[in-house]
Amino acid sequence: MEHKTNAVEVSFLKKTKWTGTTTRTLTFPVGELADRCLNAWLDITDESFSHATLPSTQLTERFSTLMKSDADQAAWDEFYKAVGEEFSRLSVDELAACFIELNDPSTIESVLWSDGEHEFLDSGCEHRY
Predict the structure, then answer these.
(1) Superkingdom, according to UniProt (predicted)?
(2) From CA 39, how far away is CA 37, in angstroms rounded?
(3) Average pLDDT in the 107-111 region?
């Protein structure tokens, strides 16, 4: 499903530097949000947090079933593919919220959206920063 946005880039501003960087701002193309959310989710090592941050109830139920079983890698790969597909169905605003939740929300101060020329407070690029 295509979600309309005028933004081409999104920036997440943190109180501390992003891991592996020398900056407090992480900026990337809006089109990468779903993949960035999936990758952040895949990086979670805490099973409870992984379970709690899945983007749908169906996926949380499926995750619980897989965790209780001795599922093979193919079953897990199918599940990861489904998680990625679910993230890709979310709006850019939902994805930004997920990205924050998956990347230490207590340290992320704000989100700015860019149309390539100016920064905005909203993904529709209507309210200039």
Answers:
(1) Bacteria
(2) 5
(3) 96
